[in-house]
């Protein structure tokens, strides 16, 4: 993957290539960035720069055969690990190698894709993928061997926060003292979800969200759209190139989430002292609970963003508001006054707690019903 194919992030490209040129390559690095910011393509390009001994920021000039292998993500000294789960193809003890073909296809088509996009490609969107102890054993086995081409070996762990405790503990010593010329590149959207002992052994590199102009230019380059449309989508994407593509093609699920959210808050408004509306909230909770846990978590994140956008609009920060609801009869300007400093912290906490409990396999119907009842009270809370 060429550095020129990666959107923006010139300062990170320069830092990584300079450190490689000077042979100051940390043995364990943690790339932290929100979805769609380019952590995965940057990690692949960086691995290619090191393994192929390339010489410039176009990621060329080194070993041609090596670069050709990277074009197909088939270099024997580049190892990938990513969250997986059982599906129709793999019935038990899933590991990354069993989904290598699907992974190469996913990266080729959607290098900026989200973990939910990855689960959809595997048909496991109703499950929660993880990096388990079986995977950790495979990593130990692979890295105990010498490199195929006599140079570095790179172990790239995508969404490293999905490592369970058993896998994390298994890899801890290996990350601290890896074999000679072995590089770990861990990628995560939330470094707090990694155990502290692993984070402390990695050099951390934070990726900022992509700028609106960067996303706009990329859309104009690859999509047949107007300048005005590209600018609007880039603004709504909020630094996430993957979201920009989903918005453009209307395939990211946000329309469904918007319908669920607006139905939810409208019912919650009516539910105070209204028994039938409370029953409607319970029915709503049952409906959402019938979807997969990853869908539920993604929806709750959407809700969190929606409430925050409403608060920003309420306090006059219009330049920071990128959300534009399409539902007939619903105006963000009319909803915004109900979200303020007296309730936004509590609303955020309740949503985050709900997502936490769903991730840990709590009963989704009970969790969402409890959240809905609490929302009814919080929406009617007066501002200071």
Which descriptors would you attach to this protein?
alpha/beta; Rossmann fold; Zinc Finger, Delta Prime, domain 3; 3 domains; globular
Summarize the structure.
The chain is an alpha/beta fold. It has three domains: 3-208, Rossmann fold (3-Layer(aba) Sandwich); 210-252; 256-379, Zinc Finger, Delta Prime, domain 3, CATH 1.20.272. The protein is built from 17 helices and five strands.
Q: Care to describe what's here?
A:
Strand 3, helix 7 and strand 4 form a beta-alpha-beta unit. The chain has 384 residues and is an alpha/beta fold. Helix 12 packs across helix 17, helix 13 packs across helix 17 and helix 16 runs antiparallel to helix 17. It starts with 9 loop residues before the first helix and ends in a 5-residue tail after the last helix. It contains 17 helices and 5 strands.
Topology of this protein?
Blueprint (H helix, E strand, L loop, with lengths): L9 H12 L6 E6 L5 H13 L12 H8 L6 E4 L18 H10 L5 H8 L10 H11 L9 E5 L7 H12 L5 E7 L7 H4 L3 E5 L4 H11 L4 H11 L3 H9 L4 H17 L4 H15 L3 H22 L17 H4 L8 H16 L4 H16 L5
Parallel strand pairs: 1-4, 1-5, 2-3, 3-4
- Strand content is 5-15%
Number of helices: 17
- State the helicity in percent bands: 40-55%
Could you state the CATH homologous superfamily of the largest domain? P-loop containing nucleotide triphosphate hydrolases
Separation, N- and C-terminal Cα atoms: 53 Å
Which fold does the CATH topology of the largest domain refer to? Rossmann fold
**Overall domain count:** 3
Q: What's the SSE pattern?
A: HEHHEHHHEHEHEHHHHHHHHH
Alpha-beta content class = alpha/beta
Backbone CA Rg: 23 Å
Q: Write the CATH architecture name of the largest domain.
A: 3-Layer(aba) Sandwich
User: Mean of residue pLDDT?
Assistant: 88
Poorly predicted parts: none
The biggest beta sheet, please? 5 strands, parallel
CATH class membership of the largest domain: Alpha Beta
Query: Taking strands numbered 1, 2, ... along the chain, how are they ordered across the largest sheet?
Result: 2-3-4-1-5
**What is the number of E strands?**
5
């Amino acid at each position: 993957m060429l550095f020129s194919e990666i959107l923006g992030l010139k300062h990170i490209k320069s830092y990584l290539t300079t450190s490689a040129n000077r042979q100051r390559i940390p043995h364990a690095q943690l790339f932290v960035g929100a979805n769609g910011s380019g952590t995965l393509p940057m990690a692949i390009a960086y691995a290619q720069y090191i393994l192929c001994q390339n010489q410039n920021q176009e990621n060329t000039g080194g070993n041609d055969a090596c670069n050709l292998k990277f074009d197909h993500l088939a270099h024997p000294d580049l190892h990938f690990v990513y969250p997986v789960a059982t599906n129709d193809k793999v019935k038990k003890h899933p590991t990354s190698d069993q989904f290598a073909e699907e992974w190469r296809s996913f990266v080729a088509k959607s290098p900026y894709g989200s973990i939910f996009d990855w689960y959809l490609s595997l048909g496991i969107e109703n499950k929660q993928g993880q990096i388990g102890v079986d995977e950790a054993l495979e990593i130990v086995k692979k890295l105990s061997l010498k490199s195929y081409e006599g140079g570095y070996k790179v172990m790239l762990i995508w969404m490293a926060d999905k490592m369970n405790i058993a896998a994390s503990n298994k890899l801890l010593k290996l990350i601290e003292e890896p074999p000679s010329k072995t590089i770990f590149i861990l990628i995560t959207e939330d470094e707090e979800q990694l155990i502290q002992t692993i984070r402390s052994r990695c050099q951390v590199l934070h990726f900022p969200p992509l700028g609106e102009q960067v996303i706009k230019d990329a859309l104009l380059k690859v999509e047949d759209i107007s300048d005005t449309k590209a600018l609007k989508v880039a603004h709504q994407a909020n630094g996430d190139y993957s979201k920009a593509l989903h918005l453009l093609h209307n395939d990211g699920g946000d329309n469904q989430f918007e319908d669920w959210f607006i139905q939810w808050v409208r019912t919650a408004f009516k539910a105070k002292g209204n028994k039938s509306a409370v029953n409607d909230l319970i029915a709503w909770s049952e409906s959402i609970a019938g979807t997969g846990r990853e869908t539920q978590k993604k929806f709750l994140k959407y809700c969190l963003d929606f409430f925050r956008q409403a608060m920003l609009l309420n306090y006059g920060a219009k330049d920071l508001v990128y959300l534009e609801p399409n539902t007939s009869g619903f105006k963000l300007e009319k909803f915004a006054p109900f979200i303020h400093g007296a309730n936004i912290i509590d609303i955020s906490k309740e949503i985050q707690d709900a997502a936490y409990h769903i991730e840990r396999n709590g009963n989704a119907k009970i969790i969402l019903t409890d959240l809905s009842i609490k929302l009814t009270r919080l929406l009617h809370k007066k501002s200071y």
